[in-house]
Amino acid sequence: MELILIPIITGIIAALSGKWSKWVAIVGSLAGLVITAIWLSKFNADGSFNFVFDRVWFSKAIHFKTGADGISMVLLLLTNILSPMIVLAAANKHNTDKAALFGLIVIMQGALNGVFLSMDGIMFYIFWELALIPVYFICALWGENNRFVTTLKFFIYTFVGSLAMLASLIYLYSLMPEGSFDYQALVNVALNETQAKWIGAGFLLAFAVKIPLLPLHSWQPDTYTEAPTAGTMLLSAIMLKMGLYGLIRWFFPLVPEAIGFYTPIIIAAGVLGVLYGALIAIRQDDMKRLVAFSSLSHVGLIAAGIATLSTTGIQGGILQMFNHGINVFGLFLAIDIIQSRAGTRNLQHLGGIAKQAPYLAVGFMLVMLATAAVPFTNGFPGELLLLKAVFTKNAIWGVFAGITIILCAVYMFRMYQFSMFGTAKNGIYLFPDLNMREKLLFGVLVIIIISAGVFPQYLLDLCGPSVDKTIKIIENTVGVIS
Amino acid sequence: MKSLLVVFLGAIVVLFVGLGKKETKTTPLALLFIGIALALIPLDFLGKLPWSFEKNVPVDMLFFDKISLSFTAVLLLASFLVFGLFGSKVQVGSDLLGLLMFSLSGGIILTASSNLVMVFIGIEALSIPLYVLAGSRKTNLKGNEAAIKYFLMGAFSTAIFLMGCAFVYGSTGAIDMETIYRAAYTMEHLKAVSPLLIIGTSLILVGLSFKVSAFPFHFWSPDVYEGSPNRATVFMATIVKVAAFSAIFRLFSIVLMDLRGESWGIVVAVMSACTILLGNIAALRQTNVKRTLAYSSIAHAGYMLMAILVSPEMGFWAILLYSFAYIAASVIVFYYFNEISSNRDESFEAFNGLAKNNKFGAVLLALSMFSLAGIPLTAGFAGKYSIFSAAFVEYKWLVFVALLGSAISIAYYFRIFKSVFFTEGDAKVNTTAVSAIFLGIAAIVILLLGIAPSILTNLSVFKF
User: Fold this and answer.
1) B461 — contact with chain A (CB < 8 Å)?
2) Lowest mean pLDDT among A53-62, A168-177, A236-245, B66-75
3) Using CA atoms, how far apart are residues A250 and A72, in angstroms rounded to an integer?
């Protein structure tokens, strides 16, 4: 409750408070982080929902019901760590007069917390949509030249997906004698296979657009490229995870009857996305576009891992959701810094930055290594678990997915090498190194990357019991999943 | 009943206060009467009122139950906002204001009529002042076209409606709704539905569909909306539509509810689907904002028709919520359209850059666009959700069509967005403090019903 309301209210205040807005926004988003930390200290990781808050909302059927289990906790942690950092990253000299920008970021934080906390179908839908609105405005107001067309495409894609999900929710609701949208009640509905396929199609459309899974990804590279950095960070680091979270929390437990039909599709779409994204990323010169395609490749692997429905797969997916969020934030931060100083983010025009900006070179290097899943960085354990899960499920898909590590190293090193080393092209002679604000951001990133790389067990223990419980829910209906 | 009398009295007073003078400011007077009428609604609710056709309650020709009172509240709120926002700036002749109030009293009669003759009188009282108003810009060619079109279409549709009444009388021997209700019930149970009754119902449906501009009787509305002065257009788009829907609701959802599966259910469902698709798709291609709004209001009529198809308990609450959402958002959008088009043209470009010069206006416009498009936490979503979830049980395909329509509607609502927020320009609206209060009321309705729609259900626990 407080995790939703405090950011939304401070966000509205921040949007109205003129030049003080970034300070209000930082306080509001840090408040979210503090509450998450307090919750973590009280959290009881036994697979049940903690901190349940339940009030009647629209009618008897629709409640305002929030609660957090281990899976939600990991994502709440991600959202509330990254939101203050995104506000801080946006607080550069270009954005001094954009009061509404900071407000919208914090409103977004509240809406995302709402998505991860919802225990009622309609409430989930409402926050799912609500999270779309701030990011739409951020992208459309402060994006690049072609922004209106791309953001409209993005909005229509996701809105159609959400409407399909609403139809599925109403369908489920209409199958109950005593209608209710409570999570447990929705899980308990028994379906036949045809119903499960239809209902699953609605949910899957909504989630696949957000993740994005092939072939529904076409909004993603354009939107990432055209959006302002804060918008890209919100979209790629946190918002994508809504779709993956939706798969674990809503899709599989609600329509387990249809998993025989849908899991091969999701795994195939995920692995194809892995290859497709990586192959295209190798050829990109625009750094933002490159990271957009690499992101497509990484989330494809996460989706495939989750769809194996094994403990390793889902746990690895959750771990990787957290780590991918951190890493992709770091990459876009580095790109933003390079672009604002060099005036371009085209790899053909960049070079020789490392000599002039050693701090940036080290920070960027570490983030890049983490993205390429080098051991002792946070990218490694998650990727390992995911690959193991996909390989166990289907060896051929596993081999294809494994290529991701090689390809990822290729495009990441190419990006790093072209931008940081070599000779300066296009007259980049004066490239100031990181200032205090940026050093702080990279410092926090480095700490998270190393500690999550060396001690991944903390996050795994946090979500483990909830993952087991989710798998048990599915197995109760369809029997043991091989 | 009290509200009707107050509005009627007010119409006469307003008409005569300004008689013989060229320019008078009678808007506050009209607002006063409507305000009193609005204030009388809760008082009426406190009394022990029947819900609808309960046993042992004598039914007069005008029957003020809770259904009619709720719809009257929507009508009065809508006219309160319309009079407040479209009367204060330009000096409005008192005769025109008086006519609008007569039209409003026609609408109230329509919500309360329990007799086909009263429905007819209500429609006529609602429409005749508007025929005059549509052509009140005497030198404007489009205005004349609109008035003629509206008059001819209106006259034809009421004639068809009367024909339908005759058929219904022929088959049931009655024109009061309670008797028709029992006759339909008996026929349905004896499996002997008279074909005359079905023909009569269809003709009545045609007559009323003209008024709400549902497919295939919608074609007059874009031209008429475009040609009429904005004050009349917003009146047609909100008050006329809601009043006609209250009549459709009572006639079809309640009186003829037993015949839905037999006869009119599938017809209304197909009409609703076509209305939604046609309204939304045609709106995409318009370059004139007023025509876009006209097509959007056709689409909204389609959504409201869906609520006729469900059980009256659910349908009533859904259609009421939807009406509140629809009028509040429409009034805001039409207000800004009116202000901007009076200085500039009626194209989308006229809205360019409004967000820079008028933040308050931009935020309100965004809110009402969101509500019309059905984005959560606005009243529009609550209304759409309640209609869709009620209709889903029996008409799954229709809900899919409606969802598709909502998705399409994003594209044209967001064109206004694009102009307001993302394009450079110098659109400007000087909102007076008084207008700001009325706009604020409308915005509060949108937000309040969006965040907590249960206040409306709790107010009126509906049972038969």
Assistant:
1) no
2) A53-62
3) 12
The Cα B124–Cα B129 span in angstroms is 9
Cα–Cα distance measured from residue A402 to residue A68, given in angstroms and rounded to the nearest whole number: 33
Write out pLDDT tens, residues B116-157. Answer: 999 999 999 999 998 888 888 778 888 888 889 899 989 999
Query: Does A380 fall in a domain?
Result: yes
| A38–chain B nearest CA distance, Å | 29
Q: What is the mean pLDDT of chain A?
A: 86
Interface of A with B (CB under 8 A): 56-59, 122, 125-127, 129-130, 133, 137, 140-141, 147-148, 152, 155-156, 159-160, 163-164, 166-167, 170-171, 173-174
Nearest-angstrom CA–CA distance, B68 and A257: 47
The pLDDT value given to residue B463: 45
Instruction: Tell me whether residues A167 and B400 touch, CB distance under 8 A.
Output: yes
Cβ pair B422:A147 closer than 8 A: yes
Q: What is the mean predicted confidence (pLDDT) over A239-245? A: 91
Look up residue A258 and give its DSSP letter: G
State the best of B385, B394, B404, B458 to mutate against chain A, taking most chain A CBs within 10 Å: B385
Amino acid at position A121, single letter: G
Are residues A148 and B422, on separate chains, in Cβ contact within 8 Å?
Answer: yes
Query: Treating both helix axes as pointing N-terminal to C-terminal, what angle do B312-343 and B379-391 enclose, rounded to 10 degrees?
Result: 140
pLDDT digits (tens, 9 = 90+) for B199-223: 999 999 999 999 888 888 888 889 8
Q: Which of A99-108, B45-54, B104-113 has the highest mean pLDDT?
A: B104-113
The residue segments making up the domain with residue A460 are: 259-475
| Domain regions of chain B by residue span | 2-459
Partner-chain contact A166 B453, CB within 8 Å: no
**What gap in Å lies between CA A346 and CA A249, rounded to an integer?**
39
Q: What is the pLDDT of residues A15-48, one digit of tens each?
A: 887 778 888 888 888 888 898 889 888 888 787 8
Q: Provide, as residue numbers in chain B, all residues whose Cβ is less than 8 Å from the Cβ of A164.
A: 403
- Tens of pLDDT, residues A77-96: 999 999 999 888 888 767 66
How far apart, in Å, are the Cα atoms of A168 and each of A209, B249, B272, B371?
16, 28, 21, 22
Question: How many structural domains compose chain A?
Answer: 1
- Which of A54-68, A243-257, A274-288, B82-96 has the least mean pLDDT? B82-96
Pairing status of strand A62-68 against strand A50-59 = antiparallel
| DSSP alpha helix (H) spans, B285-395 | 289-308, 312-343, 354-357, 359-373, 379-391
Cα separations in angstroms, B243 against A293, A395, B119, B257: 54, 66, 10, 19
Contacts of A156 in chain B (CB under 8 A): 407, 410-411
The partner residue sitting opposite B407, judged by closest CB among A58, A129, A163, is A163
* Out of B399, B418, B452, closest to residue A167 by CB: B399
Give the DSSP H/E element, type plus range, for residue A396. helix A395-420
Cβ-count burial of A286 within 10 angstroms (0-12 exposed, 13-18 middle, 19+ buried)? middle
pLDDT over 70, % of chain A: 97
Mutate one of B316, B360, B394, B403 to test the A interface: name it (highest A CB count within 10 A). B403
Distance, in angstroms, between A346 CA and closest chain B CA? 26
- Predicted TM-score (pTM) of the model is 0.88
The answer to whether residue B43 neighbours chain A at the CB level (below 8 Å) is: no
Say yes or no for a CB contact (<8 Å) between B453 and A58.
Answer: yes
Note whether residue A342 is domain-resident: yes
Say yes or no: B392 contacts chain A, CB-CB below 8 A.
yes
Chains A, B: CB contacts under 8 A, how many? 68
